[in-house]
User: What shape does this take?
Amino acid sequence: MRGGIFVSALGDSAKRAEELKNLINYHNHRYHVLDSPEISDAEYDEFVNELISIEAAYPELITPDSPTQRIGGEPSDTFKSVRHRSRMLSLANAFSLGELTTFFNRISNDLGTEQIEMVCELKVDGVAVSLVFEHGIYVVGATRGDGEIGEDITANVKTIQSLPLRLFLETAPNILEVRGEAYLSKEQFKQINEEREELGQPLFANPRNAAAGSLRQLDPKIVSKRNLDMFIYGLGSVSGTEFVSHWESLQYLKTAGLKVSKYSGKVNSVQEAYAYCEYWQEKRHSLPFEIDGVVIKVNSYEQQEKLGTTSKAPRWAIAYKFPAEQRTTVLLDIELNVGRTGALTPTAILEPVVIAGSTVSRATLHNEDEIRRKDIRIGDTVIVQKAGDIIPEIITPVLSKRTGNEREFEMPTACPACGGDIVRPVGEAVARCVNINCPAVVFEHVIHFAGRSAMDIDGLGESVAHQLLDKGMIKDVADIYYLSKEQLLGIEHFADKAAENLCSAIEVSKTRPLSRLLFALGIRHVGAHVAELLADRFGSIDRLVAAPYEEITAVPEIGPRIAESIINFFREERNRRVIERLRQAGVSMEQEKMETKDLGFDGMSFVFTGTLTLFTRSDAEAIVKSKGGRASSSISKKTDYVVVGKNPGSKYDKAVSLGIKIIMEDEFKRLIGE
Ligand code: IVH
Assistant: This one.
């Protein structure tokens, strides 16, 4: 009898889970593919939360194509190899409209007609990916590799929200292999580089490199944060379904729920194809993603077959590559910028020139070796290009324009800002000023320390920092807390009110949480996130200073590189002195604890997984801490609650397997008494 009731409860839940999956897939498609949502985010989340709770109660109902399984799996060590079902070809290029004409002449000659229908598509600048759906379910995602064998990036591709994990087809083919381009929007690319800059990591030169780098991450959780997207532009191998043209197959793929570019179009003549190319060459900057050309494909499969393929590329398609937006200008000088870590970055000072819609007057030269390799000399006429139309770079000097008056760049042996020694360790590309009191380094440090995501001292911007340092009012960040209002009145254009405001902003900043202080100190490799992990784990700066290497590396996500950097930082006498003087000035060095009477989560441990919609992750964690609990990033047997948001990751599975209490966001809200 009991078994019967159980089976029917499971049956009902299975039915509802199926319904929810369909609903979620439908609305996900409306949002991410059609860009026309029908319901609010909160309503969407309700469906997801309901599905999550059913799956939590009946883990046997979790299927790989469930929308809750987008970010799953543990990080892997390598990518497996996958053999493509049909070869992934490349495209022949045309670099001018003249070369396009040659292509058209050849195909009309081979086909014996000038009546050739063609499809024009945008050539999105990303990474080619092959996908396999078995009976409509997404099973494999792979890179191109050598065209025959690629790398298995199934889990990474799964994080792409516009990809349906189950096709919208009544009768799906047994096997459907499709091809497309995974890419990052310009906006997303910018954001990734901003984050990398903050962490002192090298920047991606263009969205394609960033997309390739993201797809090659071994941890799908990191990939999911990159918000990759993907256009599907063609078929690989298909079983049981016949199409007569490329256009027809694109319509089929669109109906199946895949994201097919809305910018593709059919053309009937060479003139129309030219017009498409010229239009997008002109308008490319208005698109939210980067394109580097147009792909033109013969539409009819019969004609495609007649034309055939070479060993590398089809003879029925061509990529018209836009001319890269390059200009020549004069390299007036090479300036050295001293960063917060003392790193010296050579920057080209250029005679201003307009490229891809904006004026360029500076370009990074990366490092000394790069300047030598390109043989760039001061006074050279140089070709400048905007890589991915975003970061300007010097491609090459124009040797024919050399007059003999050009000057080779010499890396100075003394820092241009302080005259201190410049050291370039053997095997490293970066030269650094090693004077810890270098004013340029101190300036960058002060700006970082007072910045919004650090101690957030309102009113302490670049101009004020310059003056404080120039007038000798501060020599390091601790001095900020010993400034008097009278001293501040010595700052240019600083009246009574401004000085008072800065004084109180400095005062307020003393109470910032420990994580902000740790970030503000500018320890190499300690970004905002790592600072939070450290603050959570150690609770006070003294405990962190005293922590041995093993204890630091035991913190999830913190590896040897970060741990070494932390230890070296605190070993430095000067840094210890700064911390002591910050302490004496009253800067909080402990994790802020709320008053005991308001606790409630005393000693309890919470883990959040998935995208929260009612709170930001940091707010939710702060609430837990304010109630005496601990927010941790990894699950163990000691975890009390796992709070799940949208698209939870493998932590959810782990919580299920360890039998830890799983709650939705709204339950969490009730728990905190809201
Ligand atoms: S068709 C056999 N269509 O360009 C046809 N490729 O330079 C092969 N690409 O490897 C590709 N947008 O990564 C095609 N609409 C589009 C494309 C496209 C971007 C990329 C693709 C390919 C590369 C060839």
User: Anything to note?
Assistant: Residues 89-91, 121, 123-124, 128, 181, 233-234, 295, 314, 317, 319 surround 2-(butylsulfanyl)adenosine (CB under 6 Å).
